[in-house]
What does this fold into?
Amino acid sequence: MCMSKQIPVLLILLLGVCPVQAADIAVIVGRDTPEITLTPAQLENIFRKKTRLTPWSQAWVPVNLHANHRLRRAFSLQLFEQPPEQQEEFWNIQYFNGITPPYVVTSEEAVLRFVTDTPNAIGYVLDCHLDARVKVLLRLTAPEHSLPCVPGHAEVKP
Amino acid sequence: MLKPALLYTIRVLLIVLFSTHAAYGQTDDHAAMRYLWGRGLSVPALNLNLGGYTEAAVKAPERGDSELVLEDLSLFISWMPFSQLRFFAEIELEDWLSTRRVRSLEAALSPERYYFDWLVTPAFTLRLGKYLTPVGRWNVIHAAPLVWTTNRPLVTKNELFNTHGTGVMGHYSRLLNDRNLELTVYLDDSEHLEPRKRQPHFEQAAGLRLNYEWLDNLEIGASYLAYRNRLQGVDNDQHIFGVDMSWRRRDYEVMAEWVYRKGDKANDYETGGYAQGVAPLGHKVYAVGRYEYLNGRHVQDQAAFDLDAHIGVMGLAWRPYTPLVLKTEYRFGDGNESVAPSGFFASFAMFF
It folds into this structure.
């Protein structure tokens, strides 16, 4: 058997043996961000840029994963009850008023870096990918079994 | 000599093209300037975004001449110099490349909107400048790539109320039972503040609008507007009352508005509305149907006349990509010829 055929088999065996848990989605901000509590409805308004200002009168900077990332899709379904592609019409309307969608990055590690480096940035990662650079404002329950948590895989792309 | 230069140019163009494509929402370098089709040119270092939309239409009324018109070419400038201050402008280049003559430079180059938003608190925004009059839904989202038909409903047109105002607007929003409640209050003084007046225009106006997300996919709104304008040299005081709704689920959509206008003179009233439904047919093609009704004392081209019009619109829209739509429709009706002639209409509209 050639090596390329062996790799998927090994991965399946590995995932079958290791304890892989479904993870929650952690909504994160930088360590220095003041303490606040957010409801899902408030978070929805921040990611839709309907709420532009933080309670301390600075501009929120929401950051998204790209539309095909499975965590982005899970986040979108959980918060907006819509996949990302069904929100394009909403963003068309916003664009007509000069408002563009949130920044997009390609991996959870990029979200962690963005949130750490950008004042008032807000993003999301799987809670098993959290580290000391960020703090959690809110946890959303991910759809069951859809987001297995593989520790150390924050940079894994879909 | 020419051939290497041409090849070099093509290579450079291809590199630019592919680097633009690569920037399509995939970059981690969020400080880099990038262009995204349908979302404009973003310059994050300046908090600046430049974009716009265009529409070309074919209009073939059953009575009268057909025409091909570059209906809209609008440019957007959005700039946020500070966290709490935002500037937005829409400059419209109208009637360019039309088969009919450009009427005048003033008519062809029109600042449609320009305003500063001061984000006073997370819930309250104060707007100063020229804005779209928030009566109903269609007027504030009237851009051709956003709407489903080439022709806008009669009750949303400038003849019933002025589609733009110049003055001050306050917008307050809050969550009520985890759903957005929005209140907009505005005062207009176009007579003194608007340098490029079009007829008819508000002299002064005051209005308010309430919008609530009633259910997950259902929004309802109510509008009130009091205004004074000048028709045939005479000041008219008018009141507009309106209710509207919008329902969306997956690719299905229903939108409706009803408006009542009452003037200060006897028998000077108008009432009407529309209901529009959209259903997907597959392959990003949508069927669109609309019924409109308008009854009362109608003003058009500075002339007033009694109107009782029923209008139907049946059409198809194809949205192959998010920023792009191609539309075709047939409009028909009863008593509609003077205000919304029957005929065939088609258009191409795109955000860029």
Remarks:
- The helical segments of chain B are 2-22, 105-108, 190-193.
